[in-house]
Amino acid sequence: MDPQHFISSGIIELYIAGMASEEEIRGLEAAMVQFPEVAAEVEGCRRNMEEYIRLQGRIPEGDIKTRLFTQINNESNLQENEPVPGEYLQQTNVVSMQETKSLSWKWLAAAAAVLLAGSLILNYVFFNRYKEFKEYKDKYQSLLVSQNSILSKSNLYKTRLEQMQESMEIIQDPKVLKVPMPGTKAFPDALATVFWNPQSQQVYLKVNKLPEPTADKQYQLWAIVDGKPVDMGVFEMGDTASLLQKMKVTGKAQMFAVTLEKKGGALQPTMEQMYVAGKIPG
Questions:
Q1: Where are the domains of the chain?
Q2: What pTM value is reported for the model?
Q3: Alpha-carbon dihedral of residues 78, 83, 85, 86, nearest 10 degrees?
């Protein structure tokens, strides 16, 4: 016997409302004895029902009873004044009408009370179900957001892992030359590395240590070919700087250097802003 079944199935609400079957009543009362949480839930539901009925109840106007019986008496008096043949027959008819009216009003009042109670009970049950549905919906939305966040991070980690594997393959390739670029005299703490494959002419850059530039500035890589600087493209900082970045190709070069330029790059390097430079070994 699972206590959660009784708590979430709606049997407790039906039990409190007096609408549960005999089998449901026996099962619930047995569960109340066996499981304290079920008994607590029943008691809580009972209190909530009483509070709900109290809040929904309406106090009739003070003179409604007086006005109601005045109207009934007026109708009875009109009936007594009608010309009916035979005094005994008239008396008999009046008594019969009064008794009938009294019984009718009692039945109507009882029926109205039953309908009101039933309406309150159903409203309470549906209100509880709505609250449970809203709670489950909120939990589902929260889980969905968490799942999407985890999926997004998983895709990001997968992409980053693939990039790192590709970087390792490039670095370990025996055809690739490693060109360290230490900091210049103006920026002694700076450091970057170029990985160049002379056969494919592809150049990759690894930022080891460069300060983050302002929003209107960008680092640019240069290849020194026959004594002249050749643009190898600008590159990104931030998280991207920890990976190899693919630059432009070059067939030959004697050294590489990095300068800080306006965002988008320059046609010629700003020599005063040269952060790192390194000669190709050999």
A1: 3-143, 177-279
A2: 0.46
A3: 50
